[in-house]
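dumping this here before i forget
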Amino acid sequence: MRVLIIGLDAFEPRRFERLYEQGRLPNLAKYVNAGKYSRFAVSNPPQSEVSWTSIATGLNPGGHGMFDFVHRDPATYALNVSLLPTKSGFGGSQFAEPFTATTIFDQVVKKGYPATALWWPAMFPARVKSPVRTLPGLGTPDLLGRLGVGTYFTTDKEVANQPGRKTPVAVLTKKGSTYHSQLLGPMRKVRGGAEPAALDVQIDPHSNDSATVIIGSHKLVLHKGEWSPIIELKFKVGRFVSIQALTSVIITKLGADVCLYALPLQVHPLKAPWHYGTPRNFVKDSWNSSGPFLTVGWPQDTTALEDGFITDKQFID
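structure:
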């Protein structure tokens, strides 16, 4: 026997039931018709990371410790993101597990059955000793330790100077017929301090519809509004040390203005600076069998959408 749990965040049951009755959800209807459908109570507060952790553990927030997106350190009153707590470790601060309660997946494995949790929130960093096969979801940071912030490249200097936006803006400078900038990556030590490692970005428009985009060693020919394949980037942070990252880019404007959006620099699951998934051979097999996949998950495009740098259609694509 197999048990499959499909989770849809913020999927209001009344809306689901209405669409189901109208016959507009044929795929989900197969599961409802084959088994049983019922509502269940949500956690208090009804927030994503709280609800998913309650489902995973069978505990309320008082039992598993996830009770808000922001937690307060009672000793210092400092605020921190509950999905990305840190602790002191070898080499400085390290990400810590958001909660330590036993999950239903662990209990299933203890009973002698295999269990897999794909894109489940608050499962980063990986619980190295856990026998559960996991690829984490919400709460997986980007390469810079944030919950998914990309970079917007534009020739419009006014956009770069506008306050109130979360997405960093890099100005594209025209040299001849091409446009140039840099994609900033993780910090590296230099004499007298530290600075971001960077890769050169070049855009060579062919027309108002397509252009050649060069990022590091990658050369892409893209149409406007078309997402690139996932690309693997390498940032040199030391004489013999490099950190690899994943991203995808999209040209949003060509013509009088040239604009390009790059997804957050994401942890490479096979070459991550932190423990990503478990066990390692499952992560590797998933990558090899399914092809490259992004790791930040849910928040990776939302900031750019909120800032108006990509459209609803581009977000959905």
